[in-house]
Amino acid sequence: VSYKQKKYFIERDIKRRFDNAAFAFNKNDFIYRHCSNELIERLKPISIQSKNILDLGSATCVMNKYFINSYKGCNLINLDLSHKTLKIAKKNQKFSSNVFGLQANAYKIPLKANSMDIVFSNMLLPWINDIDALFHEVRRILKNNGLFIFSTLGPKSFVTLTQAWEKEDEYKHINPLFHADEITTALHKSGLLDAVLDVDYLNITYQNIAKLYRDITAMGARNCMRDRVPSLIGKNKFNRVINKLRNNTQDRIEINLQIIFGHAWSIARSNTNQEYYLDISQIKKRQ
């Protein structure tokens, strides 16, 4: 069973964890901001006139300043499942008259069809059960020739952490993550075409386990899966996992991330055969 065909996550738990993490998010958001900055670099060369922009899964709205300065006079909508992150963002970002916060489910975006010029999504996909449904909703709200640009973690992320837990029990401790080819297929099926994907790798060294888990917790990225361990993890088991992760010479913990960046366009359907076409040569991976 592929990830997109099974409901791995419990939505109420995701909302609760991000609500709880909201106040500390901006202090421990290195990964999130790194990917935001990388998406900005990929967005800069793209020429598009944009009046309406949606930041899908906006968290504390760190992209507001860039969008407001780069797309003068645009209407910017920040959508997130967590009310608390939007509340903090409104306080810190000082929303203007054309910047809006919207608490909603990404599968049911309360916006009109063909209304958005750009949909921007940073690190939302790791929390999505059904990317087919998500991408169809993105396609629905995008205008023809509108842009969808996103980042997500790939399945080669947290390999050492996954292996360490697998030696301890049979439960899932790391969120399942979509492969690039699954993402490409789902984009194609939804009508988001001319897809370009590239892959980066990021290794992060932590001085101690407390900092690692502060980062993970601040991002709300604690286990929200249905088949997670049904009870509290014992201290001895937890310490054994940590010892497996430590660098024997420096006593540090190294975490590896595979980051997938991509964009695609909402190109109108053919009037003749209602088919989509994707040039595979346009899908690029960068090591």
Subunit organisation of the chains: single chain
How far apart are the termini? 28 Å
| Strand-residue proportion | 15-25%
CATH superfamily of the domain at 3-154 and 176-200 and 259-268: Vaccinia Virus protein VP39
Broad CATH class of the domain at 3-154 and 176-200 and 259-268: Alpha Beta
Please, what is the average pLDDT? 78
Structural class based on helices, strands and sheet pairing: alpha/beta
User: Helical content, roughly?
Assistant: 25-40%
Annotation field: number of helices: 9
CATH architecture of the domain at 3-154 and 176-200 and 259-268: 3-Layer(aba) Sandwich
Overall number of strands: 7
Major sheet description: 7 strands, mixed
* Computed CA radius of gyration, to the nearest angstrom: 19 Å
- What is the 3D shape? globular
H/E element sequence: HHEHEHEEHEHHEHHE
Can you describe this structure?
It is a single chain. The protein is α/β, with parallel strands linked by helices and 287 residues long. The chain has a domain at 3-154 and 176-200 and 259-268: Vaccinia Virus protein VP39 (Rossmann fold), CATH 3.40.50. It contains 9 helices and 7 strands. It has helices spanning 11-21, 30-43, 64-70, 83-93, 131-141, 159-166, 180-190, 209-218, 235-245, and strands spanning 52-56, 75-80, 99-103, 116-122, 142-153, 192-206, 253-266. Strands 3-2-1-4-5-7-6 form a 7-stranded mixed beta sheet, sandwiched between helices. α6 crosses α9 (235-245). It is globular and about 55 Å long.
